[in-house]
Amino acid sequence: QVQLVESGGGLVQAGGSLRLSCAASGLTFRNHAMGWFRQAPGKERAIVAGVSWDGGNIYYADSVKGRFTISRDDAKNLVYLQMDSLKAEDTAVYYCAAGYLIRRSADEWQYWGQGTQVTVSS
């Protein structure tokens, strides 16, 4: 059974930083692209960042370019999202996802975590 478990969310002031982690089990981690999505109240789930199975391709949403960094550790089956210079508009539930390719649409990812809340106070 595939499990993705996010951690690292919380409350932070604008301008601060957080690092999210996602621990994966039950799948061949190195064969999967990994992604981070977020969903704010009343909005659709949207991709934040994605990294290909081999780390060779990385995608960032325009809204987070230069502030967020995605990385993966295949030895530990972990994917990270380093979030710097956080803004109030980054407030959302952040979800980890696993799939075969980096896709912008949430519908095209195969596995999901339960999500972790990130709240940025202004």
Walkthrough of the structure:
The mean pLDDT is 97. 34% of the residues are buried. The chain starts with a strand and ends with a strand. It is mostly beta strands and 122 residues long. It is 0% helix and 50% strand. β5 (46-51) and β6 (58-60) form a beta hairpin. Strands 2, 4, 5, 6, 9, 10 and 11 form a 7-stranded mixed β-sheet that branches. Strands 1-3-8-7 form a 4-stranded antiparallel β-sheet, with no helix packed on it. The radius of gyration is 13 Å and the shape is globular. It is built from no helices and 11 strands. It has strands at residues 3-7, 10-13, 18-25, 33-39, 46-51, 58-60, 68-73, 78-83, 92-99, 111-112, 116-121.
Based on Cα principal axes, name the global outline.
Answer: globular
Terminus-to-terminus distance:
40 Å
Q: Strand percentage, roughly? A: over 45%
Instruction: Count every beta strand, where a strand is a DSSP E run of 2 or more residues.
Output: 11
Label the structural class.
mainly beta
Helix share bin: under 10%
Q: Roughly how many Å is the radius of gyration?
A: 13 Å
